[in-house]
């Protein structure tokens, strides 16, 4: 195998000098520069220093809050130790981290286990369990360097053997991880342990997103002795240890005394003594009442209704950030009537996008155009928003063999925006000749069948790169079978080829041109309707410091403390 060339330590990757010129020429934004440079191994500090030297660009409007280091700036009084944070969230059935399909479960496991990398609140990726990484010119060979001296909570040191074990698990069909689809450019045979702290990845095709893929929420690192049941074997490198876990009721985590990260006071993090997760069910009223009474301190991924109800409460602070989170109206292309693209197009024409956003999320978001690449993504290609067109829908249905319209069943979960979006679609689709029967299920029931229903609404969380969700949701494996999270079974060769090209394209403008083509394909023959992308809120008692709204709704409590 070819050995990766040594690179200048100042720039790490040979494309960095060109990227600097691209930024100076105004061909990429500050955010796009930061994200690309750090993915290629340039340190956040060096990238920020370059931008500072270049001076501000007054015409550039930020898409999110100003970029920060991966931990928020503490209050002037300094962090205090002790106390408990109680979170209202679902306490789900958990087994293997690599099989995670829900962020609620990942937030629980993240207290005990950690990732090789960390993508922060501004979509910038930093080393975490890794000290650094390097990529070759073609970004198809990556070298990962582990931090030394990090120990699991059973006292055993983290080494490359643990990382290789985890990666082999990700690609094991019996485990059934979505990571296999996301990282389809890698095979188990192309993962090499170089020494106890170094791993090399030899990709089938170049991919700039490897560091961010290592933060995909099922990619939590467990020890090489892991046997497949996290609740029975909660061994990790993280800041807390698991004390109690009762599915659908509560989970309790206690401070780890020998965590590897240090706080500002020179002592081991975390600052909190305990984190408690309470499952209060799916009723918004119960969670609102619990927050008002002080039974809980924050609410995981609150609905728009919760945001409206609590945003003015004394002692409660609401954090917000724009994201690529969306509620996908998804159609299975391997079943009638949605195997017919004219039917899929007809349903898309029945979406009144602004009405849907207003009803489901109080207008707090941006409209979508049925392509699963969002305005917050680097290299996003702006397109006109499709109008509501029920007459056009009727004409397409007639061409598809349904001159009198058709009746379909729609399934989704009873949570967040899904019921309101489903009701909105039912009302607007009726004028287009589509009668929709609604089946609003408890979340656990929907997630048991989410990949099986012909028509559904599925929440898809934010991902920092526009290539990530397409790789998870709209591709096939080497044998041509739709990936584990390809709920619509839609696979398009032209789209997949463009995706592979986008993944290895470093130049932001060149990648934008590819995204333009990908977005056109999804609009014209894809399997989803995307009415809008949402902002997300983090609602928390104001006494907790160093909390922010993460675009992917990830909790990160190692540096959180209480100001009394």
Describe the model.
The protein is α+β, with helices and mostly antiparallel strands and 564 residues long. The protein has three domains: 1-62, no CATH class; 63-315 and 542-564, D-Maltodextrin-Binding Protein, domain 2 (3-Layer(aba) Sandwich), CATH 3.40.190; 322-535, Dipeptide-binding Protein, Domain 3 (Dipeptide-binding Protein, domain 3). It contains 17 helices and 20 strands. Strands 1, 8, 9, 10, 11, 12, 13, 16, 17 and 18 form a ten-stranded mixed beta sheet that branches. A four-stranded antiparallel beta sheet has the order 4-5-7-6, covered by helices on one side. Helix 13 (418-430) links the parallel strand 14 and strand 15. Mean pLDDT is 91; it is low at 1-10 and 58-76.
CATH fold group of the largest domain:
D-Maltodextrin-Binding Protein, domain 2
- SS-based structural class? alpha+beta
Quickly give the CATH architecture of the largest domain.
3-Layer(aba) Sandwich
Would you report the number of β strands?
A: 20
Main pleated sheet: 10 strands, mixed
Rg, Å, rounded: 23 Å
Mean pLDDT level: 91
Straight-line N-to-C gap: 58 Å
Classify the oligomer.
single chain
Q: What would you call the shape?
A: globular
Overall tally of domains: 3
- Residue share in helices? 25-40%
Estimate what percentage of residues fall within beta strands.
Answer: 15-25%
Report low-confidence residues grouped into runs of 5 or more: 1-10, 58-76
**Please, what is the CATH homologous superfamily of the largest domain?**
Periplasmic binding protein-like II
- What count of helical segments does DSSP give? 17
CATH level 1 class label of the largest domain = Alpha Beta
């Amino acid at each position: 195998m070819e050995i990766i060339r040594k690179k200048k330590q100042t720039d790490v990757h040979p494309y960095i000098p060109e990227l600097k010129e691209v930024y100076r020429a105004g061909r990429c934004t500050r955010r796009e520069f930061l994200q690309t440079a750090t993915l290629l191994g340039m340190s956040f500090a060096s990238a920020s220093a370059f931008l500072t030297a270049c001076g501000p660009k007054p015409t550039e409007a930020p898409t999110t809050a100003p970029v920060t280091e991966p931990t928020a700036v503490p209050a002037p009084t300094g962090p205090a130790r002790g106390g408990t944070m109680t979170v209202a969230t679902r306490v789900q059935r958990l087994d293997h981290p690599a099989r995670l399909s829900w962020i609620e479960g990942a937030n629980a496991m993240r207290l005990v286990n950690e990732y090789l990398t960390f993508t922060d609140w501004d979509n910038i990726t930093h080393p975490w369990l890794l000290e650094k990484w390097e990529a070759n010119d073609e970004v198809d060979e990556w070298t990962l360097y582990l931090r030394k001296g990090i120990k699991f909570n059973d006292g055993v040191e983290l080494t490359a053997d643990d990382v290789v074990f985890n990666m082999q698990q990700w690609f094991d069909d019996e485990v059934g991880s979505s990571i296999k689809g996301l990282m389809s450019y890698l095979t188990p045979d192309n993962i090499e342990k170089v020494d106890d702290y170094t791993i090399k990845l030899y990709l089938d095709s170049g991919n700039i997103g490897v560091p961010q893929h290592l933060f995909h929420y099922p990619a939590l690192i467990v020890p090489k002795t892991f046997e497949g049941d996290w609740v029975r074997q909660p061994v990790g490198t993280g800041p807390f240890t698991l004390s109690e876990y009762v599915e659908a009721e509560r989970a309790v985590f206690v401070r780890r005394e020998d965590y590897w990260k240090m706080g500002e006071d020179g002592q081991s993090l975390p600052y909190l003594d305990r984190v408690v997760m309470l499952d209060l069910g799916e009723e918004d009223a119960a969670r609102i009442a619990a927050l008002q009474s002080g039974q809980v301190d924050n609410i995981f991924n609150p609905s728009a209704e919760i945001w409206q109800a609590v945003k003015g409460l004394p002692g409660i602070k609401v954090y917000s950030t724009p994201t690529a989170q969306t509620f996908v109206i998804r159609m299975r292309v391997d079943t009638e009537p949605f195997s017919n693209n004219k039917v899929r197009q007809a349903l898309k024409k029945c979406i009144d996008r602004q009405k849907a956003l207003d009803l489901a999320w109080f207008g707090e978001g941006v409209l979508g155009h049925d392509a699963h690449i969002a305005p917050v993504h680097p290299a996003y290609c702006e397109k006109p928003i499709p109008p509501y067109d029920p007459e056009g829908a009727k004409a397409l249905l007639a061409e598809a063999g349904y001159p009198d319209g058709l009746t379909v069943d729609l399934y989704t979960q009873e949570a967040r925006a899904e019921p309101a979006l489903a009701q909105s679609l039912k009302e607007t689709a009726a004028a287009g000749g589509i009668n929709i029967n609604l089946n609003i299920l408890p979340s656990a029931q929907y997630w048991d069948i989410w990949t099986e229903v012909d028509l559904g609404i599925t929440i898809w969380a934010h991902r920092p790169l526009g290539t990530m969700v397409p790789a998870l949701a709209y591709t096939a494996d080497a044998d041509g079978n739709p990936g584990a999270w390809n709920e619509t079974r839609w696979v398009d060769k032209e789209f997949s080829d463009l995706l592979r090209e986008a993944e290895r394209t470093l130049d932001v403008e060149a990648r934008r041109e590819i995204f333009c083509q990908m977005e056109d394909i999804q609009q014209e023959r894809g399997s989803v309707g995307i009415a809008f992308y949402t902002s997300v809120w983090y609602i928390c008692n104001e006494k907790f410091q160093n909390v922010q709204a993460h675009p992917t709704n990830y909790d990160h409590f190692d540096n959180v403390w209480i100001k009394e």
